[in-house]
Structures are given as structure tokens and as C-alpha cells.
Amino acid sequence: MSLLTDLQEGALEPEYLTTRHRRRGGPVLLVTVLLLTVLLTLAVLQTTRGAGTAAEQRQDLLDRIAAARERQTALSDQAAELDAEVRRLGQEGLGDPAQREQLALLEESTGAVAVSGPGIVVVVDDAEDADGTAGLVLAGDVTRLVNGLFVAGAEAISINGRRLTTLTPIRSAGAAITVDYVSLSPPYRLEVIGDPGSLQARFNETSGAAWWHFLTQNYGVSMNITQAENDLSVPADPGMNLRHAEQG
């Protein structure tokens, strides 16, 4: 029996046995490759569709932001035109030229209208190695600086493009400084309209200048004062609205 068994098992060549095994494994391998190809294709399609949807949503958001900015600009221009019309009517309502001149002076001093003229530029900034609040320009520091400039004879001041008046709040909001409820970032650039020949010298005699000298010497904050080469333009205070009126 062992001889018959050996003959039966050895009747097939080794190459035939290998081929038969390959024929059995071939379909399985093919199906596996097809399944992997399908899964990868689906993954690529889903990723592509997701990226396309995200890009469309981002573009839609950018379009809405651009439209909102255009709308804001249009409303700001319209508000400026209406303010100019109100001022014109107010001037026409005053028959006395002296009253008209007084009204124009009041509008300039209160920030109701934009002004331009010679002056100085003051730039202050945080210390390079500021640690915590030490070395940072704080709202109180800016307030002392502005008060000193007004005492020195400043006629109009803006900080980072925001007009400062007696009604403009300068406050801290975390690490930022807000001027008229708008957050500003350092460096802080103050454009100061006034007599450039005496403004800086008179400012150096104020308590605000003494405070800032102390800050620059002990906390590393910087302050640079230069005379403006050309006339400065300070915008009107956008929050300056008519609150009370009487008919004489």
C-alpha cells in the first residue's frame, strides 16, 4: 500500500502542483486588488468633494465680508454727506457772521469737523523685552501723553487715525488699548496739529512728559517726537453727534 500511495502522490509533477495552487490564489488576489482600488477611489472622491465644498463656503464668506465692507463704506460716505449738509444748514441759519465764525471754531475744537495744519508726530511703543504688563504702553500712559500735548497747545490730536476729543474714552481691554471703543495695536502714532516751533518745547515742561521720561528710562518703552514735514490731516470724530439744539 505504501508503494501505491507513493506512486499516486508522485504522479503529478511539482510544477503542476505549483500552477494549481496559483490558479486557486489568483482570483482571490484579483478581488482584493479590485476592492482596494474601489475604496481608494471612493476616499479620493470624498476628499475632493469635501475640499470643493470647503472652498465654496470660504469664497462665499469672503464675498459676504466684501459686500458688508462696501455697504459700510457707502453708509459712512452717506453719513459724512449728511453731516456736511447739517453743518451747511446750520451756517445758513445764522445770519450774524460773527456767530458763524464762532460756530466754525467750536466745530474744530470739539472734533465735529476734520482739520489740517502743521504739527508734530509722536510715536510710542512697547519695550522689546516686555514681560507681562511691565514694559507695555498702558491706557493711563496714553492718557497722560494726550493731556500733556493738549496742555502744551495742541489744537487737534489723532491716534492711529482716531480723533481724540474731550468725549473720547481711552481704556484698556486686556492687552489692547481702545480709543473710542476701537482696539488699537502698537506702535501708537499720534498726529498733533499745533505750532511745531513751540509745541514740543512746551510739552517737555508738562507732567505728561516727565511721566514718559520715567517710563523710557525704567521700563524700556520708546517715544519718538518729530516735526511733520507736511501738513497733517486729522479726521472728524465719528461719534460726535448733535445732542441738543434750540431755536432762538
Automatic annotation (TrEMBL):
InterPro entries the record matches: DUF881
Ranges in a coiled coil: 58-85
GO cellular component: plasma membrane
Keywords for this protein: Coiled coil, Membrane, Transmembrane, Transmembrane helix
Leader sequence residues: none
A Pfam cross-reference name: DUF881
Sequence intervals crossing the membrane: 28-45
Domain of life: Bacteria
Annotated protein name in UniProt: DUF881 domain-containing protein
Biological source species: Tessaracoccus flavescens
